[in-house]
Design a protein that fits this description.
104 residues, two-stranded antiparallel ribbon, 7 strands, 15% helix, elongated, disordered N terminus
Length: 104
């Protein structure tokens, strides 16, 4: 498992080049571990139907363009407890992306 401080250093390193632009501000944030944080997904009934996964931690950096009123994700790291799909555990789930990633 990646150490959180290592992840935060990596996020800060990604954010550094953008922070120098006057119209953009970089924000680094994490979830509050004392607040409930989860998501639900719905699989076909034969795979268990609706299931919920607890999000253990989230750390991310975004660049906010105050002039254009837009924001871009620079980096995202999230640790999620396992999902049970069709009676089988996925194991711990890690979601990680950087600003160069493009979702499908």
């Amino acid at each position: 498992m990646i150490c959180v401080s290592t992840v935060m250093l990596a996020i800060a390193a990604l954010a550094a080049p953008i922070a120098v632009q006057a119209e953009q501000r970089v924000l680094i944030a994490r979830n509050d571990p004392n607040s409930p944080n989860f998501f639900s997904v719905e699989f076909p009934p034969e795979f268990g139907g609706v299931t919920t996964a607890d999000i253990v931690s989230t750390h991310f950096a975004i660049a906010v363009d105050e002039t254009g009123e837009t924001a871009s994700i620079l980096a995202w790291y999230q640790h999620v407890n396992p999902l049970i799909i069709g009676g089988q555990s996925t194991g711990d789930i890690t979601v990680a992306l950087d600003g160069d990633s493009h979702g499908a």
